[in-house]
Amino acid sequence: MSYYAEPIMRLIRELSKLPGIGEKTASRLAIYILKSSNGYAESLAKSLMDVKEKVKACPVCFNLSDRDVCNICTDSGRRNDIVCVVENINNLAAIEKAGGFKGRYHVLNGLLSPLKGISPDDIRIAELVRRVESGDISEVIVATNPNVDGEATALYITKVLKPFGIKVTRIATGIPLGSDLEYIDAATLGLAIEGRREM
Predict the structure, then answer these.
(1) What ranges do the domains of the chain cover?
(2) Who's near 69: CB < 8 A, 6+ residues apart?
(3) Whole-model pTM?
(4) Which residues 6+ apart lie within 8 Å of 68 measured at CB?
């Protein structure tokens, strides 16, 4: 027998389907929504429906947008000749929060993974090649995660873009700011040494 009325249980079940939300957190959220004003519940429901109905992929970079072309692609203060390639929207958001990059993006919506059956046709590499073919791009920065799939994707992109004669770079990996070399693992320290730069 449930402690909660069926409508609350349904809400808990739906909230539990969200990534990182367990049953306890879903229960707290459901009770919070129940105790909130009708206005808040209506606003939350409207926000959910707006996301589903109004947000789509930008046809240029594949960022999410509620306009025909996203605000990054239409920003005249950004460089058109540098494109940063990321795996997903969350990675784009992380780079934007850092605040240092003022070029454009290309969202792959995945990484190559032969073990998972994800090939170049399953992610947006062909679209990246078309952007480079336009001749307006001088550098592509590959900003995929430094794991097996991220490295495989970076190598594949480099191979595909080499014939165009543009600069293809990879984001640096290594030691986080504020850390102590004594406690850094060997692989990370090795990458930091390889990726050293002149001062």
Answers:
(1) 6-54, 74-173
(2) 58, 59, 60
(3) 0.82
(4) 59
